[in-house]
Amino acid sequence: MSLKTVTVHENRYADSVTLMGILDAVKRRDSVSLAEVQMGTPANIEAMRELGFEIPASAGPNDLIVAIEADTEAALKDAHEDVMNRLNRKGGSSDETFNSIDEVDTSDGWNLCQISLPGEYAADEAAKAIEKGMDVFIFSDNVSIEDELRLKKLGAEKDVLVMGPDCGVGFLDGTALATMSIVDEGPIGIVGASGSGAQEVACIVEKAGSGISALIGTGGRDLYPQIGGLSMLKGMERLAKDGDTKVIVLVSKLADRAVMDKVLCSADKISKPVVAIFLGADEALFASHKVHPAFSLEEAALKALELCSISCGKFALTSDKIAQIVESEMKKFSAQQKYMRGIYCGGTFAEESLIYLKEHNPESELYSNLNTRYAKRLEDHLVSRGHALIDLGSEEFTLNAPHPVFDPELRLKRFRQEAADPETAVILLDFITGPGVHENPISPFAEACAEALKARSEALAIIASICGSKNDPQDISKCAKELEDAGVILTGSNHQSTLLASAFMRALDERK
């Protein structure tokens, strides 16, 4: 008979990335059958109670809850001790620890502070680090836009980088931050207001045989008119002075026109080549500027390499290869199979795909859970209709569940739902790897893909790409083989996957 224990640590905060890593390690312990290490949000408490844990009514969102089920009292005790040691960074780590930023002596060489606190506390702690002359990387969300502006103005005054709030990726001095991949070092410097978009550029650069000097995240609101691109401007300035950076790449979703123009005017003054990708922008935005425009993340990466005189070889799917794949698969589909279904975890990838699909399939009806001009809005985000592309990282999905890059279960459920739909012909997937995301986000999908293809009487085309580095702990070469062995069509980038999905949509619609 198993035993359960619940411990509430009042006013103890840890970010989701930290908790996911700890939880995965504890679940692998011998004798532990179930474990949850979560902040006491209403959704988390409800989920733990559904698992049979008795959570005290006094537990709240600022409390850390450790819930464990194991075979013996000793196993419960050891597992809880393991959780706390990992939280406190004990047990073999040589890292120096501090109880507050006030204790940090920057003369000892500390120059970067990563902040993962509740939003109500993050701004004040970031300000302390900035005052000490440290670059700050703010993973925290729920920081007011007024505080963001205050911090970024202070950063400009102190000549430091302010990355964030809500900054998901960074790469400085060879160190990957938050959910960033461990990309090889090289001559390309990136400044990104889009986390997964900037990471995709970096990973394509590596796949094509090179690497990056830095990736400076800005947070998604940096190009809002209230902020004015302060972090992107500062990041460009830092890379312009960096001797290891030969080409600069700017990455963002479409933003405020005046701010984008301000950023491009600043880029015009840099002596190094600058490539800019603002997803959804047209050529008119770049017409009066010196920057090299790109209209997909893949194009931005390859153009940067070309400007470094680095040969990329045959990187992309050719139109002949796409036609060959589509022709072969279309012969296998039944008359009932009519639609493409995208099931995404990366918001920027979803947007990149929606933009291309809308532009190249203007007569097709395309649906999404996102509020976007590139697709019609689904009446129910839990049920697809027609050609549909779903971002499972959007708020309606993550309100009561972890983001799919941290926990793939919700997306696996949606995959099985779409695979079981007799009208589904094509499924489109994206994957993101790195030390800060789920330790094994791909293998469960490879198994689910193999099961779906075996269970269906009709064919199913599954297309996927991996945004990740060969240095990531997930071992993307092994993951790629697992997907291909399962029957998945694996491409080199989200853009290539989208090209193929677009061709399938066109062929499916022509057959109706």
Walk me through the structure.
The chain is of the alpha/beta class and 512 residues long. It has three domains: 3-87, Alpha-Beta Plaits, CATH 3.30.70; 103-307, Rossmann fold; 319-511, Rossmann fold, CATH 3.40.50.261. It has 16 helices and 20 strands. It has helices at 16-27, 42-50, 73-87, 119-131, 145-158, 195-207, 230-241, 257-268, 297-307, 319-330, 347-360, 395-398, 409-420, 443-455, 476-485, 494-511, and strands at 3-9, 32-39, 64-70, 112-115, 135-138, 162-163, 169-172, 175-178, 185-192, 212-217, 247-253, 274-279, 292-294, 339-344, 366-368, 376-377, 387-391, 424-432, 461-467, 489-491. The strands form five sheets. Strands 16-15-17-14-18-19-20 form a seven-stranded parallel β-sheet, sandwiched between helices. Strands 10-9-11-12-13 form a five-stranded parallel β-sheet, with helices on both faces. The longest helix has 18 residues, at 494-511. The protein is globular, with a radius of gyration of 23 Å. It starts with a strand and ends with a helix. The mean pLDDT is 92.
Major sheet details: 7 strands, parallel
CATH superfamily of the largest domain: Succinyl-CoA synthetase domains
CATH class label of the largest domain: Alpha Beta
**How many DSSP helices?**
16
CATH fold naming of the largest domain: Rossmann fold
Helix content: 25-40%
| CATH architecture identity of the largest domain | 3-Layer(aba) Sandwich
Number of strands: 20
Mean of residue pLDDT values: 92
Unreliably modeled segments: none
Radius of gyration: 23 Å
User: What oligomeric arrangement do these chains adopt?
Assistant: single chain
Gross morphology is globular
**Overall SS class:** alpha/beta
Strand order of the largest sheet: 16-15-17-14-18-19-20
Distance between the termini: 58 Å
Structural domains: how many:
3
Strand content: 15-25%
